[in-house]
UniProtKB/TrEMBL annotation:
Protein name, per record: TetR/AcrR family transcriptional regulator
One MF annotation (Gene Ontology) recorded for this entry: DNA binding
Domain HTH tetR-type: 10-70
InterPro entries reported for this sequence: DNA-bd_HTH_TetR-type_CS, Homeodomain-like_sf, HTH-type_Tx_Regulator, HTH_TetR
Keywords, comma-separated and alphabetical: DNA-binding
Length: 189
């Protein structure tokens, strides 16, 4: 594989990601082909495959990159899981889901499932890192911390997703007011 630090490689990958994002706005994930992506990015198919295994790997990278770009610095550097960190994770998760579903045509069940699973996993990993640093674990072993992070991440994600699909997405402060006490009280037990 090419040197990921080479400016030409970085530019080519950016062209491919941009082309894919543009296509996602206009076409369903299922109907996008590697040929479509390569043509839109003005590269050949061999170049695409030199950078990505397939469109699923490309989707995975775009999802992860967007998550990390949105992750507030305060959360990334958090030493413990506080009310404020919880608030920021709820808001960030909600906004990420809203943006992704607005930008991409999520008419593909397989794409929606892949994106949702990836977001949940990254959210869980972020929370787990904070728990490992902080006092939240109360001496719990790594397995317990993983379970607590999974439950916390699932609660935040599920509430944010529900809010997008069922509730008033413009009133996210209400979402935070509902979810934060539930999450934080569960962690204090």
């Amino acid at each position: 594989m090419a040197n990921q630090e080479d400016p030409r490689v970085m530019r080519t990958r950016q062209l491919i990601r941009g082309a894919f994002r543009d296509l996602l706005q206009r076409k369903g994930f299922e109907t996008i082909t590697i040929k479509d992506i390569a043509q839109k990015a003005t590269v050949n198919r061999a170049t695409f495959y030199a950078h990505f295994e397939d469109k699923f790997a490309l989707l995975d990278e775009i999802t992860e990159q967007a998550f990390h770009e949105r992750l507030p610095e305060q959360v990334a550097n958090a030493q413990e899981f506080t009310d404020e960190i919880c608030n920021q994770l709820i808001l960030m998760t909600h906004q990420y889901i809203v943006d992704f579903y607005r930008i991409c045509r999520m008419d593909s069940k397989s794409m929606a499932t892949l994106v949702d699973d990836k977001i949940k996993k990254m959210l869980q990993q972020t929370i787990e890192r904070i728990f490992m640093k902080g006092d939240t674990s109360h001496g719990a072993d790594r397995r317990h911390i993983k379970v607590m992070a999974a439950m916390t991440g699932a609660s935040i994600y599920s509430a944010a997703h529900y809010w997008l699909t069922v509730e008033d997405t413009n009133r996210v402060e209400v979402l935070v007011d509902i979810v934060r006490p539930y999450v934080m009280n569960g962690l204090r037990l």
